[in-house]
From TrEMBL:
The organism of origin for this protein: Parafilimonas terrae
The organism's place on the tree of life at top rank: Bacteria
Protein's recorded name: Nucleotide-binding universal stress protein, UspA family
Keyword Nucleotide-binding in record: yes
Domain UspA stretches: 1-144, 153-276
Nuclease recorded as keyword: no
Gene3D superfamilies referenced in this protein's UniProt entry, alphabetically: HUPs (3.40.50.620)
One Pfam family recorded for the sequence: Usp
Length: 277
């Protein structure tokens, strides 16, 4: 993970996320940190609303550039000497702009914030983070507003023990373990007792074979809901980050519906790393 992209809306929450991302970049020996802002005024389809004029777009651009310069001045000295800081603003929709910039700079990781506050901009930006975590081809790290960076010593992998051979992003996880030398706790949550019938021993054996040589433990635990099981386990075992795999079908699919994904990332103090299957 050499190139880290950190989108910003210039909120206090995003400043916190940039600080977190910079600390993370040092532990990952990152080569580039790209801080990006997509500015675009809200455009209503209501005919009573006037269209956005070009001079208004120029105004948004100027405001974005000024805010980015202030941000750059704030964080420039906190970047490791060997890491390049790139700051970019663009007239674009937020999610599309993030994807475009991630491809432009060959980003390995996107770091975004969410906030449980009622501020509209925080909720919109948080929704973008959740949406990206479902669709992005590269890993997305979602950082709650209360999260404080700690060395990644314990990683929780919330995994669906079904079709693991074709869905588990083993190589991605191994790269993270190689860099951090962290302990990996693999957790399958049983929401109903009958779910034990779906847990096949060969799925666990597949993980044990692929993660042989790594410090890994495997857990199957019951809970009233997936989010409760994941959050409770993470708190009890002092996990530093939670890895989740947004599947098209299966055990974790419901987690990445709007209400469930927010239940994890908005009500956890622990960052959530989404890696697509």
């Amino acid at each position: 993970m050499k190139n880290i992209l950190i989108p910003t809306d210039f909120s206090d929450a995003s400043y916190h996320t940039i600080s977190y991302g910079i600390a993370l970049s040092k532990s990952l020996n990152a080569e580039k940190i790209i801080i990006y802002n997509a500015y675009q005024p809200y455009i209503s389809e209501d005919p009573e609303f006037k269209p956005v004029l070009l001079n208004e777009i120029d105004m948004y651009k100027e405001v974005s550039e000024q805010a980015m310069q202030k941000l750059k001045d704030t964080f420039r000295e906190k970047i490791s000497p060997g890491t390049q800081l790139i700051c970019e603003v663009d007239y674009n929709v937020v999610e599309g702009g993030i994807i475009d910039v991630s491809e432009k700079y060959n980003a390995d990781l996107i770091v975004m914030n969410v906030s449980s506050t009622g501020a509209l901009e925080n909720l919109l930006f948080g929704s973008t983070a959740v949406s990206l975590s479902k669709h992005s081809k590269i890993p997305v790290l979602i950082v709650p507003a209360e999260a404080k960076f700690t060395k990644l010593d314990k990683i929780l992998l919330a995994i669906d023990l079904k079709n693991t051979k074709t869905t588990a992003p083993v190589d991605h996880i191994k790269k993270i373990l190689d860099i951090t030398n962290a302990k990996l706790d693999a957790l399958h949550v049983l929401v109903r007792e009958k779910d034990t019938d779906n847990v096949k021993e060969e799925e666990i054996e597949f993980l044990k074979t692929n993660f042989a040589g790594y410090n890994t433990e495997y857990y199957i635990e019951q809970a009233h809901s997936l989010t409760e099981g994941i959050n409770d386990f993470a708190g009890k075992h002092q996990s530093d980050v939670i890895i989740m795999i947004p599947k098209k079908r299966g055990w974790l699919e419901s987690i990445f519906r709007r209400s469930e994904s927010k239940a994890v990332v908005f009500h956890s103090h622990i960052p959530v790393l989404a890696i697509r299957e």
